[in-house]
Give the backbone structure.
Amino acid sequence: MTYAVWGWGGPQDAPRTADLEAVGPAVQETTGVPVQRPEVPAGVVELPPSRRLADLPPALRAIASTDAQDRARHGLGRSYRDLVRGMRGQVPFPADLVLRPRTEAEVEAALAWAGEAGAPLVPFGGGTSVVGGVEPVGLDAPVSLDLQALTGLVGVDEVSRAVRLRAGTLGPDAEAALRPYGLTLRFYPQSFERSTVGGWVATRAAGHFSTGATHVDDLVESVRALTPVGVWESRRLPGSGAGPSPDRALLGSEGTLGIVTEAWLRAQPRPVSRWAATLAAPDLPTGAAAVRALVQSGLAPATCRLVDARESALAGTLTTGEAALVLGLESLHAPTEAAGAQALELCRDAGLRVVESGPRGAAGQAWRSTFVRAPYLREQLVLLGVLVETFETAVTWDRLDGLVAAVTGAVTDALRRVCGGGTVTCRLTHAYVDGAAPYFTVLAPARRGSEVAQWDEVKAAGAEAIAAAGGTITHHHAVGRDHRPWYDTQRPDPFALALRAAKQALDPAGVLNPGVLLPA
Ligand SMILES: Cc1cc2nc3c(=O)[nH]c(=O)nc-3n(C[C@H](O)[C@H](O)[C@H](O)COP(=O)(O)OP(=O)(O)OC[C@H]3O[C@@H](n4cnc5c(N)ncnc54)[C@H](O)[C@@H]3O)c2cc1C
């Protein structure tokens, strides 16, 4: 069964053909995309034997896996392209073997051996990368370094309210370990269930809260990483002006400079007061103007998601043909009603209509459950022959409306050309004083066997439009291998020189995740 290779859940979550047949008509009706007969995923993936196992020293052999499903799972991430290929048992670049270090000493041993053997080493947290971060494209017998055995809470500083977590700790495990201390990270990327602390740091992940601490960057107090030339550990500090930040250099390094083994993250108590509202906007630009007014007024709602009319209807947030703005305010002490009333007034002034407000509204609840269920729904859609993928960016307010219109236009044209139709929807996931992060979702009829080429063409059209409109190639999905062409033109040339020099200094054998951020 290949579900272990491409699926989001456990074996019990694998979509069943009979269930897919039953939901097919409703999916077609809701998405407007014609569904196909449910695809039956391939059986097990067969692979040639590991080439590198024989070279491994005994200490590493003890933590090595050469199981074909395991190697296949570590050769794919979780993008649409990954799902489609995984379902067919097509894993063009499987790991030659998987190493699962349980201690830093074992990570060090893996680094030393990889350097000597010239074995490409690809760090693997939860494997939820959607940008080719863990797919070892074109590498010679790559080794996957799976960090999930390096897990757990190993320190709590209740005075400073910071916690020390090992890199392989999954989101739910981190929260469970913090609960007895009355603390939480309040960091919930949509991949929370399956992604790790080290993966968040390595990719500069963003949680679902729209303002304030959006990226994990804001939570990081210090990072500990092992590099081929020594330990890179920053001092725990609340802030520092001592030169370029060592933490910043590791944040977003995507496994190319070192292996993150631990991080001290800022935690917080759980909020005591919560207020939520759903508002309707005649269109996305009007809603965006309201969001800008809110964040620029200093209100900073923890949740501030603006969803266009089509996506609101699809998600069940609002089915009136209007864009929906889902707001949530939180407070550690004072009741939030007064701030809520202020937020509603600002939104009304901006031309929005209040649908509901008060403690945790039903529409907000519908939105939250769709958010959590989305990865499971996505695999059902893919099996039903629907091309479904997302991409995201960020841009300053002055260019936001232009970017959204240009990207929507370019992707709609590409979908017409490549798929014969389809839709692209947009929401603003994060809002800043000076700009916002638009997030696009594409739904289209897929041509079986050509999905990867179809998506590559649509994605390129979107990425080109983003670049031309002045956006970033990614707000939080990272660069990986898939975003390299656009990242290469986005970053300043002297910065590329500095990054290359840093890579050369830290990873002289060039074995750490080659092909990510820099050419292999
Ligand atoms: C359904 C879905 C929803 C998602 N939602 C979000 C979201 O809301 N916000 C968001 O930011 N992202 C999201 N993502 C993308 C992805 O979950 C993030 O990039 C996440 O941070 C990856 O964590 P991971 O542990 O799975 O890392 P992996 O996917 O295993 O690795 C990601 C990259 O980091 C490197 N890496 C991993 N661990 C380490 C380490 N310890 N040391 C050094 N390098 C390492 C890998 O080599 C790779 O380049 C989503 C993905 C999916 C499939």
Remarks:
- The mean pLDDT is 95.
- The first strand starts at residue 64 and ends at 65.
- The first helix runs from residue 3 to 6.
